[in-house]
Design a protein that fits this description.
The protein is of the alpha+beta class. The protein is 40% helix and 16% strand. It contains 6 helices and 4 strands; from the N terminus they run H-H-H-H-E-H-E-E-H-E.
Length: 182
Amino acid sequence: MHSVAVASRSADQRNSRDLREPFRESSRESRNGSPQLDAVSLAIIEQLQEDGRRPYAAIGKAVGLSEAAVRQRVQKLLDQGVMQIVAVTDPLTVGFRRQAMVGINVEGDTESVADALTGMSEVEYVVMTAGSFDILAEIVCEDDDQLLDVINKRIRALPGVRSTESFVYLKLKKQTYMWGTR
């Protein structure tokens, strides 16, 4: 029985430490500048990936923290840009009938073109790549006319854009954000 009390006290001490300094272990940054997350933060993320509406009390029970400690950690993860909690829709059901991935080749500063793309409301995803394209951008539009306008008048007009190649989506077979925290 004494060992159970010690284990319980140890867990309580760990929880109160987590409340005061929830990211002590995870506040260090990795080589790429992103925060290093401890096992508890990763477990919280996994819980929210399973159900983004899961109550903090239920998450706390699953990861061994109080509801307040979970709330604090989630807010820190959001503030650090580690995660977002959003509603993911099927674009077709909310009026967006055309999606495309656009491969972009750039002359000069790739980062300035990528920054300009992030400011366009129709652009949902921007990644700088190595390979055939310098940048890949996912575009979500209401129709073909809007897609043509975005590519022809806005993307191709950006300084440094040398060429584009469009890959129009015919059918979306899988869209998931459940890659976990491997």
